[in-house]
What we know:
Radius of gyration: 24 Å
Largest sheet: 7 strands, mixed
CATH superfamily of the domain at 535-652: ANL, C-terminal domain
Helix content: 25-40%
Number of helices: 20
CATH topology of the domain at 535-652: GMP Synthetase, Chain A, domain 3
Number of strands: 32
CATH architecture of the domain at 535-652: 2-Layer Sandwich
Structural class: alpha/beta
CATH class of the domain at 535-652: Alpha Beta
Strand order of the largest sheet: 6-5-18-17-19-20-21
Amino acid sequence: MPHQISQPLWQPSVKTINATNMLSFIHQLERELGFVFKDYQQLHQWSVDQPQQFWQQIWLYSDIRASQPADQVLTDGDHFLGAKWFKGARLNYAENALRNRSDKIALISRLENGSRTTLSYAELYQQVAECAAALRQYGVVSGDRVAGFMPNIPETIVAMLATASIGAVWSSCSPDFGINGVMDRFGQIEPKILFCCEGYFYNGKTIDCIPRLQEISEKITSIEKLVVVEVARQRPSIDNIPSAILYGDFLIRENTPQLTFEQLPFDHPLYIMYSSGTTGAPKCIVHSAGGTLIQHLKEQRLHTDLQEEDILFYFTTCGWMMWNWLVSGLASEATLVLYDGSPFYPQPSSLIDMAEQEQVSIFGTSAKYIAALEKAGVKPRQTHNLKNLKALLSTGSPLSHESFRYVYQEVKADLCLASISGGTDILSCFVLGNPCLPVWEGEIQCRGLGMAVEIWNEKGEPVTEEKGELVCTKPFPNAPIYFWNDPDNKKYLSAYFETYLGIWAQGDYGEITAHNGVIIHGRSDAVLNPGGVRIGTAEIYRQVEKLDEVIDSICIGQTWDDDVRVVLFVVLRDGIELTEELQKTIRSTIRQETTPRHVPAKIIAVKDIPRTISGKIVELAVRKVVHKETVNNTDALANPEALEQFKNMPELQC
């Protein structure tokens, strides 16, 4: 029988709740509008029923800096693509991120090789001024694209904020992308300037980027200047790249012009993000400055309880949307911790060591990292002093029940474990944490304020305590403004509005629980359908993760005998073989906690699981290989060679 959960894993104290920004915001609503909310559900319902009032109050609460207020919060709010937010407002994202100009530490940067640097808000402001002046000198104007092929270091944030101050559009990916992956992204958007590194550190190695920089400069002809940041070595040789200049030589440090923040419309483009690109060329998703800013402020201040004194860390690369989310923490005047390198080098506890040393209060990571910590036997509660840690954020894939229990048993008993879910599509979350609500095992705490999230069944009806498609029924200010090179919005409409006319379908398979929490069961396009019963892959992964013998797994549905059979691929620990006994254990573990339909018909050992560069497993790509279909874009994968294992497997022919 499935594990019955009768008590929450964590319940915030009255003292904790009273000190939250969420309660402070509720008090603002009482003062300004005369509203009294009996619980979060009532607050959420009001926020989606009255979007103009709600988002205006978020603007006020967040103290968004703007040279001109909006004429109207929302016009044409009945249509996603027609909705216009904060029409008439003029603002600049970078000005909001740089509102603090004091000697307070803005950025703490840690590299895998042990180096540590800090930057105050005043120093950050000055460096942004020097970089923005240089960009302007090289002819960058509003609307131009500036790209970063960069590690997660302060110079990347400086370049992004300098770009945003001008009204140019920033796009980045991490330096572990291959040439084709870079071409598929930056080749589409044609940047004028590319910030890049000559090398970086990962897993004890120094990776040289110079050969790739030479090729990028030759292939992307729009790049007029390659600005090379020295990370792994001093004064690298860039003589063979005619357009290259060292970062220190690029900045205008003498007689630096005053930093000017161009005042732009709310929906002026800020970022170009990319879909994973595992089923074709990545889609270039354009996000607005105003939408990104107000949504991130809402999520960070209210749902994450980010306050000025907090030290915020998220383990991310510049190719994952959580980097963009992390940077917005500057607009709340918090201190950000940046880390670049392997999370498990030189030992599994490396990031926990860093969190203790830097007194991190909000620690963000992936569900996979938390599961890996547990498998590695790391028990921070016994070995580390994490007294400042008040929240642990997890995203990237569903967090298993076991990981929920592990965090409270072995990491820290008194913290808000916020499993969050959204995506690059919205550069934020649909469902996330809440410092005023209890944490129930296996559940995301709540739907985000202002986000009209529902779960719909196959008839297009909203359901609770039943699995279905995660949809958003009303517009929100941080929806993409458009896709790059998509003049008729065909790709945009196809991506989100093909399933239900005029309703945003995220492509997640989930359910709303009895506690009004949310469970994500996996991607809709990866849902298994044996015997016509829909099964989310996350339900299977959760059971497999319990087994010490298994390090990693991926599950697909294989078309077989006019039906679909469940096939599970597992990566085993060194020295472990996939015996009949181990297969029996895996099957019984899955059957015991789920249903007979979930039990894999085939279990096959493989050496590696293919993942995107941001760390997500690619079930669709594996399914295509198994069915002898073409995988169009393997350059989006961190380890494309792993797909070869799945070709013509004899075990799948019978």
